[in-house]
Every structure is written in C-alpha cells, then in structure tokens.
Amino acid sequence: MNKYDKFPAKVYVDSFLKPDLFIYKNIFRDALFQINYAQCIMLNEQSIINDKEAKLIFENLYKIEYEFDFDSLEYDAKFEDLFFLVEKTLIEKIGVDIAGKLHTGRSRNDMEHTMFRIELRKKLISLLKEMIALIEHLVARSEKGLSEIILLYTHGQPAQASTLAHFLCAVIEFSLRDVNRLINSLNLVNMSPMGAAAITTTGFPLNRERMANLLGFESIVQNSYGAIASCDYITSTYSSLKIASINLGRFVQELVTWTGFEVSQIYVPDGFVQISSIMPQKRNPVPLEHLRLKLSLCNGECDKIINTMHNTPFADMNDSEREVQSEGHKAFGFMSRIIPLLAGFVESIQINKNSVDNRIKLSMATITELADSLVRDENISFRQAHEVSQQLSKELISKNISLDDVDFTIFSKLFEKLVGAPLKMNEKRFKEVCSPEHFIKIRNLPGGPSKQSITNSLEIYKKDLSEYKNIIVKCENSIDESKNKLINFYKNHS
User: Which domain holds residue 384?
Assistant: First the structure.
C-alpha cells in the first residue's frame, strides 16, 4: 500500500495537524467546552435529549475538561483534532447512543467560527479596557498641562505656540475614535454562528437564539451561509487594530522628535533613559524606540491577517480558521505590551520650559496673533496685516533677533510704510499680542488651546469614555451571566 493511501499522511500530520492541535488545545479549548455545555443545555430544553441524557453528557464533559491531561496531549492519528478527541472520550465514558446525540444539528463549521469569535471577543474586550486606561492617563496629564506651553510644528518647522494639554487632546480624540472602531468590530464579533451547522442550518428544532444567549453573544449571525463563510468580523477587527497602531505610532514618533537635542521640548525621566556604553553624556530615551518598533510589528501582524482574507472564496475555508486566528492574536499581544509602557511615559512627561520659551521667541511662533490683532486694532484687511507681519519676521530672522527683542519703532515705521497710515497700537499692546500666553488665551473657539476650550473638550471626552466603559461592562456582564447559566445547569443536575 502506498504511504499516502491512508489518512492522515505523515507529512500532513507533521506539517499541519500536529501544530493545529497545539493551537486548538492551548487557545480554543475553553471555547470548545463552553459550546459543548451550551449545546447540551439547548438540546435538553428543546426535548432533543432528555434530562438523564443531559445530566450524563454534562457531567462527563466536565470531567473531561478538568481531569484530562491536555497539557501533555500529543497528536494521535485516531482523531483528527481536539473536537474528535473530546467526542471520542465522551463516547468511551457514556456510550455512543447518548454521547453521539451531542452533535445533533451542528457542524465543526459553525462550532469553529463560534470558538474563534469567543476568543477574539476576549481579546477585543481586554484591548478596549487597556485603550480606555491609556486615554484616562492622557486626560489626567492634559488636566495638569493646561498652562504648560509648547511649540507645535507643521512641515517639520516651528509653527505656533500651544499647550501640552492641547496636543494631548488631539491624541485623546483619535484614540477615542480608535476605541469606537474597536467597539464596532466587537459588535460584529459578538454574534453567534451556532445553528448554521455546515451551511444551511438543520431540520432539527434547535434554538439559535438560546445558544447565543448561553454563550454570551448579543445576537445570531442571521444568514446561515454567512455565519460560516463571512470573514468581515476578522477583517474589521484587524483593520481597526491596524489604524490604532498607526495612530499611536505617529504619537510616539512625535515624542521621539520632541526628545531630540535640537528640539528638546520634553525632559525624559531617568526611569526611561538608557546610557551609552561609550559616550558618557548620552541620555537615550530607548523605550520610545521600543514602542515605535512594537507598534510597527503590530501593524504588520494586522496586515498579515487582512491580506490572508484577500481573494479567498466565500465559503468555509481554512484561510480564516485556526492558524490565521492564532496568528492574529499576536497583534493583541504587542498592544498589551505597548499600552502600559506608553501610559507610563505619558504620565512622566515634563516640559523643558526654558528650551520651549527660547524656541518660541526665535521662531516667532506667535506672530500670527500680531497679524490678527492688527486687523482688529488697526481696522485693516487680514492680507495687509499678514504682509506687515511677514515683512517684520523676515527682517528679524535675517538679523537673528527674537520677537521679544524687536525695536518697536522699527515695527511702527514698517507698518506705516506698508499700510500708508500711522500705527495706533502702542508698545505695551504689541508686547501683549506677541506673548505666547495671550496667543493661547485668545484662541477660545471649540477645540482651541485656551484653558476654557480644553476644559470643555475634556468634559466631552470623559462623557465618551463613560459611555464606552458602560458598553464594555454590559458585554462582560452578558458573558459572565452566560457562564453562570452553564454552571447553574451543572449544579441543578448534579
């Protein structure tokens, strides 16, 4: 007989079935047993199995789950995967006439996608809680940074004065959008395929909604073919996670720039600094580099999963099953390492005030407000005011003079030359409108850097956070309640 005539061929076992068993038993075992328990209860309630049979099945499933040595389990050609091992063991304990009824009206097709959704749901809930905790750190640091002046950049060049709180609020906003995307993905994941069976449901009077309830799902996947063939719950999850990793990566890169000697906008505490092995003066904020790297790796893992789904047939295919599911979990693993470190770094941020003040002066990062004030005070058009301010900045830059040190008479003459009218603004007013404090204070529109604007924004963010936390708590409560239903059934039939 040819070595390939009998299933499973050794090369198939070594290449795929053995590794698959490892994934199954270490990642999806708990979900498999939850499904089995729920199936037993539902079949009993639907009078497909009687109370005695349900009791026997449930009790012995429990024994298998907690007494069987899964840790040392090796692949055995007698069973194809963990599903068949559990079924075979159950049959050995109570006989095929009873144990064989557990698989009534179901298939590995609907079972496996239910398993995948259960585990992915766990990952999403954990990540969402971590993301919310990070945002809370950002909110707390923003509240402390309402008056901490920084310099913001556009096109890599100094642009305008602002506050640390204003900058962090931008991070809070995209992080809240990331949370919202992840919650939308959770809603897609949190739907039960059970009852779809292989493709077209079954002629048995199953209760799909009850199965969903017993497993803590919000609802069922309505279409039975879609339940076992659709992969958008996977692509949605990893697309949302990919966007989150990109967003946080850009934030981290900005922090890297800020720590550079030439910018020197923030001071990094010693707890986040590694020294050079040869250069005594070096203070290397290496944790930021680790964060940037891990976020890139997370991004790559997400791409891997999304690209795997591309151009796969709309059918039950291994392309969306155990191996790819476990690979995707690596992305969540990276995020669970990234977020606590980033939260700690955010908490530690200290502004280099002297460096920031000096760069604001030399870059004339407040001169936009001079132009705006000229419009209001001198009753001229913005284009005229912009021209005056631009010419002033050119002259000062060419002479390496800061806005603070300008000779007011030079400005007054420049204004009269370009506008054709005498300047009404006095020197005191000129100094005021050019100060970073005034620049920030007057920008009081929604989303601006003033204290009032930021305070209002933070209240909105806190409200959003509260709503998102409630959604997560509701989901967790549903899952806990479903597990209690399984436990109570066991207690009541013991």
Answer: 367-434
